[in-house]
Automatic annotation (TrEMBL):
Domain of life: Bacteria
Natural source organism: Streptomyces stephensoniae
Region (Disordered): 62-95
Name of the protein: Immunity protein Imm1
Length: 125
């Protein structure tokens, strides 16, 4: 079975790897920096950005601590990760990736269900 993904707080119609980046960019342009997608198999994909860097997390189910994209060796931290509940988070840059890389990761996960072969991520389980 091919996994399909929907953006949680939008249309129940699935997004594809060809349309997910347009949806993310539109949300960012409208000040919505946190996006959660749910797959037909029950997995969740989170994308939270400050428009320069992004936290990308993939969770197997509701209680799963999941795994997240990383930038090994990155120094410093970045703030401005505005969540939908009003919380403003700051993350070490090592635990986030540049937004362009985050777009590539999300596109690949939505299209294939897995991280790109060359992606770096940390397992939080």
């Amino acid at each position: 079975m091919i996994e399909s993904w929907v953006i949680n707080d939008e249309s129940p119609l699935p997004v594809s790897s060809a349309t997910v980046l347009e949806a993310l960019r539109s949300r960012i342009d409208n000040g919505r920096l946190e996006t959660w997608l749910t797959s037909s198999s029950g997995r969740s994909l989170a994308f939270v950005t400050n428009t320069e860097r992004a936290m990308v997390m993939l969770l197997e189910d509701e209680g799963d601590p999941g795994e997240h994209a990383v930038s090994p060796g990155a120094q410093g931290s970045s703030d401005g990760f505005a969540l939908s509940n009003g919380q403003d988070d700051e993350y070490p840059d090592e635990d986030t990736v540049p937004v362009i890389e985050a777009f590539r990761l999300v596109e690949q996960i939505v299209g294939t269900g897995s991280w790109p072969a060359d992606a770096r991520w940390a397992v939080d389980r």
